[in-house]
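User: Show me an example of a complex going from sequences to structure tokens.

Assistant: Sure. Here are the input components:
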Amino acid sequence: MTYKHHVPSLDRLIHELKKWPGVGPRSANRWANWLLKLPEAEIQKLRQALEDIKTNIKRCPGCFTLTEEETLCYLCNSTSRRKDLICVVEEPFDIARMEASGKFKGQYHVLHGTLSPLNNINPDHLTIEPLMKKITNGQIKEIILALDADMEGDITALYIGKLLKDRDIKVSRLAHGIPFGGNIDYIDEQTLGRALENRVDFSI
Amino acid sequence: MTYKHHVPSLDRLIHELKKWPGVGPRSANRWANWLLKLPEAEIQKLRQALEDIKTNIKRCPGCFTLTEEETLCYLCNSTSRRKDLICVVEEPFDIARMEASGKFKGQYHVLHGTLSPLNNINPDHLTIEPLMKKITNGQIKEIILALDADMEGDITALYIGKLLKDRDIKVSRLAHGIPFGGNIDYIDEQTLGRALENRVDFSI
């Protein structure tokens, strides 16, 4: 399906929008039409936001998440969070998801990726060294590995687990299992297998 | 579901993206993450395209579609299209859809809306007067009303049909084949092509 309007800047905008993940020609066309009718001021807000994410955002020197703070991010700066507990995540965006769960009140550490031998991503590409430094210097009691439940997540968890083997630190991973509201009929075998392996005691 | 990152420019971008039609917090979050990792040059292309649609595009004085040409648009300028046949559409974007059907080789006329008594859209808000002028001055033999199959489309077709009642001009509407309530933007080419071939007489 083609949506060629023969209006160069319009076709250019649609071309750019089609690059976005999961966006097809139909959606790109629809949004271009919508953007075209948007007031100048709204377009400016969007353009400014696109510029700002490039110029204002840097990495927090504490946990390596994204921040605009001059020194540490709002989480590292918080005085109400436990200092002896670190949750290791792959991406800065994972933090907002963890925070939404409302169940974690410790520190974070963003790896900025996962180990992937196939893609030549090795430990030097991630923030594993600063994580080890934190553990050596600090009073860390527990590390929670909140990594994706895929092969790269498994490899990375295994690697960090080995590094921490002889330290006096509790290391845990997020439980794998049936999602809340999930129906056993529709769960894939891998998930069900893990849910079975990691079954929890339910003696009442 | 909230995705608050506590990074002002990032949260602002997500806020802007959520305004887009059909975009929820999940998609806005995903795209913000993707845009964040995009190279500076790609962001610039997007920002430029957003500026260009506001500064470069004007209405063709012939058919009132969008164009960047100094005089007439590429369709009005074409020498290979019939001059005695006008297809009346609601929006500039409808033209790309009609062209994709490959069944129409005449001129277009963009109304820029439809009559809508409820929303106070009357004939003066549309390009109906220039359409009548074209018909009076020209050698137009047929008018095809390619309007959406909804109430506003019906009202507008009826109004134009009445204006052309005593003129020696064939007036037709796209065949029903378009489901009632359907929007031309979302019809596939085959259906649209058939609807064009089977257009029915609308002389009142």
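The lines above are the inputs; the final block is the predicted structure for all two components together. Chain B has a mean pLDDT of 89.
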